[in-house]
Automatic annotation (TrEMBL):
<feature type="transmembrane region" description="Helical">
    <location>
        <begin position="12"/>
        <end position="35"/>
    </location>
</feature>
<feature type="domain" description="Peptidase S54 rhomboid">
    <location>
        <begin position="57"/>
        <end position="193"/>
    </location>
</feature>
<keyword id="KW-0645">Protease</keyword>
<dbReference type="InterPro" id="IPR050925">
    <property type="entry name" value="Rhomboid_protease_S54"/>
</dbReference>
<feature type="transmembrane region" description="Helical">
    <location>
        <begin position="180"/>
        <end position="200"/>
    </location>
</feature>
<feature type="transmembrane region" description="Helical">
    <location>
        <begin position="92"/>
        <end position="110"/>
    </location>
</feature>
<feature type="transmembrane region" description="Helical">
    <location>
        <begin position="143"/>
        <end position="168"/>
    </location>
</feature>
<dbReference type="InterPro" id="IPR022764">
    <property type="entry name" value="Peptidase_S54_rhomboid_dom"/>
</dbReference>
<comment type="similarity">
    <text>Belongs to the peptidase S54 family.</text>
</comment>
<feature type="transmembrane region" description="Helical">
    <location>
        <begin position="117"/>
        <end position="137"/>
    </location>
</feature>
<dbReference type="Pfam" id="PF01694">
    <property type="entry name" value="Rhomboid"/>
</dbReference>
<dbReference type="GO" id="GO:0008233">
    <property type="term" value="F:peptidase activity"/>
</dbReference>
<keyword id="KW-0472">Membrane</keyword>
<dbReference type="GO" id="GO:0006508">
    <property type="term" value="P:proteolysis"/>
</dbReference>
<feature type="transmembrane region" description="Helical">
    <location>
        <begin position="56"/>
        <end position="80"/>
    </location>
</feature>
<keyword id="KW-1133">Transmembrane helix</keyword>
<dbReference type="InterPro" id="IPR035952">
    <property type="entry name" value="Rhomboid-like_sf"/>
</dbReference>
Length: 204
């Protein structure tokens, strides 16, 4: 194994790499081999309020609605997560991801508590927290997006990301919890505020 190959291989033994591999494997199994797994992991506030599927508040982050949904989330996790984990350390990164996975679902838990038909899947809330925590540390870093040939500042990407989430949340038939994008972003910003207030001071 060459030096570059070894570096690439061991890069998956990081919080970002492990989350990416586990989420991708579980999501693919649920999408193509076990539809029952997808249904059991789906976040259903109506059931949670009635003492059922309480684990879905975090298990739903390991399954996705379709291949595109999975690909976009994992691309964002890899794009932002590696640098963020290196900056804040593995422990804080895992804590951020876990807290955001739950916290981003809480507003929906209340909003949809009387809707037996509502169900959502995806790691969008946790991914959004990672993206916005990254933006606090690297607001002027430039990103090359899949659909744009020109670099976009990280802060502008964040604004566009939230604008899309607000627009997409109007689709009542989607199984993607777009509201979690917004609350995940808030979680990421608040997390950095409490764990590293100096980062906010530098930003402001």
């Amino acid at each position: 194994m060459t030096g570059s190959s070894a570096t690439s291989f061991f890069s998956f033994f990081t919080p970002t790499g492990i989350l990416l591999v586990v989420t991708t494997l579980v999501s693919l199994i649920a999408l193509y081999f076990s539809p029952r797994l997808l249904e059991e992991c789906a976040f259903r506030p109506y059931r949670v309020w009635r003492g059922q599927n309480r684990d879905s508040i975090y298990l739903s982050g390991f399954v996705h609605a379709n291949l595109l949904h999975l690909a976009v989330n994992m691309w964002c996790l890899w794009l932002f997560g590696r640098e963020l984990a290196h900056r804040i350390g593995s422990t804080l990164f895992i804590l951020l991801y876990a807290v955001a996975l739950v916290a981003s679902h809480i507003p929906t838990l209340f909003k949809q508590r009387d809707n037996p038909n509502y169900a959502s899947v995806g790691a969008s809330g946790a991914i959004s927290a990672v993206v916005f925590a990254y933006i606090v540390y690297y607001p002027q870093s430039e990103l090359y997006l899949l659909f744009l040939p020109i670099p976009v500042p990280a802060w502008l990407f964040g604004v566009l990301y939230l604008a899309y989430s607000v627009y997409a949340s109007r689709n009542k038939n989607s199984r993607i919890n777009h509201d979690a994008h917004f609350w995940g972003a808030v979680t990421g910003l608040v997390f950095v505020l409490f764990t590293d207030p100096a980062a906010w001071a530098r930003l402001l």
